Amino acid sequence: MVSHVSLQLMDNILLQYNIGDVFLLLFGLTLLGVLVLRSRKVLSLHAGVFGLLFVLTPVGSLGIAEGSLLSEPLAYKFLGLVLVLASPILYTTARR
Question: Looking only at Cα atoms, what is the longest distance across the chain?
């Protein structure tokens, strides 16, 4: 009974957002964990993985919802492209 109610609550919350918003939230939360490590190589790998995740996510699942953080589904693709292009530069310039 409790898990059924909690699943309905999660469903009601997630209906207001799209998968891009969920990925963006996960990127921000895991970025905090990566920054604690103080390693630019790990940061660049993190950015590259999430960049690929944003680029490879189908545009249909990035449809705009009520509380969506970015205004266009294409904005998530551009964010992913920037992360994919920036991550090798970060990795090459990293010392540790």
Answer: 53
Tens of pLDDT, residue by residue over 32-53, are: 999 999 999 999 999 999 999 9
Tokens 């009601």 belong to 12
> CA-to-CA distance for 34 and 38, rounded, in angstroms?
7
Helix, strand or coil, per DSSP, at residue 39: coil
Read off the amino acid at residue 93: T
Q: What count of other Cβ atoms lies within 10 Å of the Cβ of residue 46?
A: 21
- Give pTM, 2 decimals: 0.81
Q: What is the 3-state secondary structure (H, E, C) of 54-93?
A: HHHCCHHHHCCCCCCCCCCHHHHHHHHHHHHHHHHHHHHH
The vertex-34 CA angle with 51 and 80, nearest 5°, equals 10
Q: 63: alpha, beta or left, given left = phi > 0 and alpha = psi -120 to 50? A: beta
**Ranges 1-10, 69-78, 82-91, most confident:** 82-91
